[in-house]
Design a protein that fits this description.
Helices cover 33% and strands 24% of the residues. It has 7 helices and 9 strands. The termini are far apart.
Amino acid sequence: MKIGNQYRSKVLAIYDQIPGLLSKHEKRVVLNKIVEGSDFMQYEDTFFWLADSMIANECFNCADPNIGLSINEDRTYVKCYMGDTGLLVSHAFSENDVSDGELYREILHGKLSLNEGMLYENAIAQMLVAAGHKLFFYTHYNETKHRNDIEIDFLLSNHSKLKYNVFPIEVKSTENYSTTSLERFKEKYHERIGGCYVIHPKNLSLKDGIVCIPPYMTFCL
């Protein structure tokens, strides 16, 4: 009810779609699918309100991971994570499903047909924001293959002007996974990279120069 009347409908249009967007592979908001012909400028206040009210955490595309990720951000490509993962569950299901706690038990025991990766990645985004990081992601479109051949979930930086380093992070919700995108990103930007990370549901390990950490260590990044 605190949403300004001038953009309330736009805020609710984005908010209502967050669970659906996060369950997709790319996860980014496609404004043209909300209202045909719309662009980011028309929804800029919408994203600001969702972020400023701490309901959502914005994650912008960084077209060129170089000095100052914000300088190279592409605001026309944005992902919206919920500011609270419990709120995401409540938003994705009806109030009756959540109220008795049975839904959470089903999720924790893996008995529910649900995109658990959506919840996992949202929780990681929430932890990164809580640690003081602004969220960025990276994709590279291969013109020959007509698809993205590099997709990095999150990019962090050390904010140094003299010895700038970028830290790509891939989030994996299962124990069996590949690191193809991370390896391609490492090869493409090896001179800028300070370290590569995978956040996975296994123990701390080091594999081919990639540090793999369990999710509870996210706050250390």
